[in-house]
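hey
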C-alpha cells in the first residue's frame, strides 16, 4: 500500500511541478549536485494533471490565509489609539514575516510555496517553472488575496473603510518615485533570498538547508516590512496589494496601485538576473 502511494506521488506531484520548489529542492538521498534542467516554456501535459490544480488551490489558500491574518493585524494597529497600545509596526512586520514562514513551510512540497506573483515571476524568468504554471499561480494568488481581504471587511464593515482597508499607498512625505524605489529594492531582497535559500548547489552541499528555507524567506519579509512600512505600507507582493485595493476600492489606492506591480516585478527580475548570472554564472558554464 505504501509503495502504491509513493508511485502516485511520483506520477502526480513530482511529474508536473516546478524544477526547484521552495524549501524542498534537495530533500533527496543523493546529495551530489546536479544542475536541474530548465523548465519548458509550455508544458501542455500539466493541464491534465491533478497535481497542477492541487498546486493552484494550495497557492489560493495560502494567499487567502496570508491576507486574512496580515490585514486583520494592520486593522488592529490602526484601530488603536496609539502604537504603544497595539502590536506596533514591529508586530505588523512579524505578522507578515511569520505568516510567510508558516505558509511556505506548509505549501512548499505542494506548490513551491510562492504566495506572491513577484516570486513566481522571478522563478519563471530563471526557468524554474513553466509559463503555464506561472500564469495559473498568479491568478490563484490574486483570487486568494481578494477573498482574504473580503473576509476581513466582512468582520469590520464600519472601521474597514475608515481605517484604510490595509491598502498600499505612498504615504505623505514621500514621492511616487520613493515608493517605486522602495518596492523594487524590497522585492529584490525577498526574491534574492528565495533564490539563495532554495539554491540547488547549496542544498546538495548542506542537507539541512531545505528544512530551514522558509525561515530566511520569512525573515526577509519581516525586515523589508520594518524598513518600508513608513513609505508604502510595504507591498512587495502584487497579489496582496491587489486584494486590498479591490476590497477597499479607494481612489488613492488605485492611483498608486501601479507602483505595487511595476516595482515588485522589476525587483524580482533584477534578483533573478543577479542570482543566475552573477552568483551562479549559469550562462557561462560549459556543457559536458
Amino acid at each position: 500500500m505504501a509503495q502504491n502511494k509513493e508511485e502516485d506521488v511520483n506520477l502526480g506531484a513530482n511529474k508536473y511541478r516546478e524544477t526547484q520548489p521552495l524549501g524542498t529542492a534537495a530533500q533527496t538521498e543523493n546529495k551530489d549536485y546536479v544542475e536541474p534542467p530548465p523548465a519548458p516554456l509550455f508544458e501542455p501535459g500539466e493541464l491534465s494533471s491533478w497535481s497542477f490544480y492541487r498546486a493552484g488551490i494550495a497557492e489560493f489558500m495560502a494567499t487567502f490565509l496570508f491576507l486574512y491574518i496580515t490585514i486583520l493585524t494592520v486593522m488592529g494597529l490602526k484601530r488603536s489609539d496609539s502604537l504603544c497600545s497595539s502590536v506596533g509596526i514591529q508586530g505588523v512586520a512579524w505578522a507578515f514575516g511569520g505568516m510567510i514562514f508558516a505558509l511556505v513551510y506548509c505549501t512548499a512540497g505542494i506548490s513551491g510555496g510562492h504566495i506572491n506573483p513577484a516570486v513566481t515571476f522571478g522563478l519563471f524568468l530563471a526557468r524554474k517553472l513553466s509559463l503555464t504554471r506561472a500564469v495559473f499561480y498568479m491568478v490563484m494568488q490574486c483570487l486568494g488575496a481578494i477573498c482574504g481581504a473580503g473576509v476581513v471587511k466582512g468582520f469590520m464593515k464600519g472601521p474597514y473603510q475608515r481605517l484604510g482597508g490595509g491598502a498600499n499607498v505612498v504615504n505623505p512625505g514621500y514621492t511616487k518615485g520613493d515608493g517605486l524605489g522602495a518596492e523594487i529594492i524590497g522585492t529584490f531582497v525577498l526574491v534574492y533570498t528565495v533564490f539563495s535559500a532554495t539554491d540547488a548547489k547549496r542544498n546538495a552541499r548542506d542537507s539541512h538547508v531545505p528544512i530551514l528555507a522558509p525561515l530566511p524567506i520569512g525573515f526577509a519579509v519581516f525586515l523589508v516590512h520594518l524598513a518600508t512600512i513608513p513609505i508604502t505600507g510595504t507591498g512587495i507582493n502584487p497579489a496582496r496589494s491587489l486584494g486590498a485595493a479591490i476590497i477597499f476600492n479607494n481612489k488613492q489606492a488605485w492611483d498608486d496601485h501601479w507602483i505595487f506591480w511595476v516595482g515588485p516585478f522589476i525587483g524580482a527580475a533584477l534578483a533573478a538576473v543577479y542570482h543566475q548570472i552573477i552568483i551562479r554564472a549559469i550562462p557561462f558554464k560549459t556543457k559536458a
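The chain has one domain: 46-278. Confidence is low (pLDDT under 50) at residues 1-21, 23-30.
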